[in-house]
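Before a colleague's protein record goes any further, I have to sign it off. Thanks in advance; the entry in question is below:
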Amino acid sequence: MVRISKYTFIFVILFSITPLYSQLAGFAGVFTRMGFGARGISMGNAMSSVTSGDVVGYYNPALSSFQNEHLINVGYSFLSFDRGLNFLSYTKNFKLPNQPDEGGAGITFSVINSGVTNIDGRDPDGFQTEEYYTSENQFTFAPAIQVSPRVSIGVAFKFYWSRLFEGVTATSLGFDGGVLFKASDRLNLALTVKDINSKYEWKTNDLYGQYGNTTLDKFPRLHTLGVSYLLPNNLGLVSADYEVSNKKSQILRMGYEITPMKDISFRAGFDRFDLTSSDKFGNSNVMFGIGYQKEVKNYVIGLNYSFVMEAYSNKPFQTLTAVFKIK
């Protein structure tokens, strides 16, 4: 449980978070950079070019046009330090009026909810007052269209609503853009830019009166180059993402998935390998996962699990995602 004085709560949250020059953990919107769902997380979040299996527009809005079934993901994460992280998404491709047979379009609706609970409030004398919490939420609408059989483009509209303290909230509208190029039946390439215009603007005048002010926290703008390849002879899928930001970070991610038997998949990957850091392995995460899906008439139900051993935490970051597909 985190203990903190009521009168220093806002100050600590807003001003004690200093940028880690080679990392993005100290910047706004960190909950949006932890991944989406157990499948993506267990593959190191190297998913910007992956069109096989279940896909969502979180990693690249251009991916939505490749999801054939109605796909619903519901995810819950187990995190240390009283943190919470939850996911919900719906993805489906479709045909636009008068669109050629070889074309297609798609859409993703998604929600990410995060926060910290059990923050122990204290007055200046150290007596307990009440428990506080924070809440951050992202609501995404991501349409995509295939401009040719091999090229898909997409854009994501992301609305943020966050609560830092009673009476201290922030809203914002950000954008993502993405392109997916199918170089062959096995090789995919992707380009994305994320968090254009995403920011928090915290106003504490109502809370502190004349001592309040306005604090602007901009999200890092992320640019990603992704590649994925379906190995021959059913040996699995490999993927990699190279991400740079306007905060001078350079992150490498890699993932692998194999389905050695019907309905069961095994996954592994690593994330946050920072090429600009002197300790390239110090902040990186290694992850593993497993997935199971079963077809029942016109439905598919499944469960995905991911395990991540976070840096600087003695407890794992685990995620369960329920999968529902309607054909």
Remarks:
- Residues 6-22 have pLDDT under 50 and may be disordered.
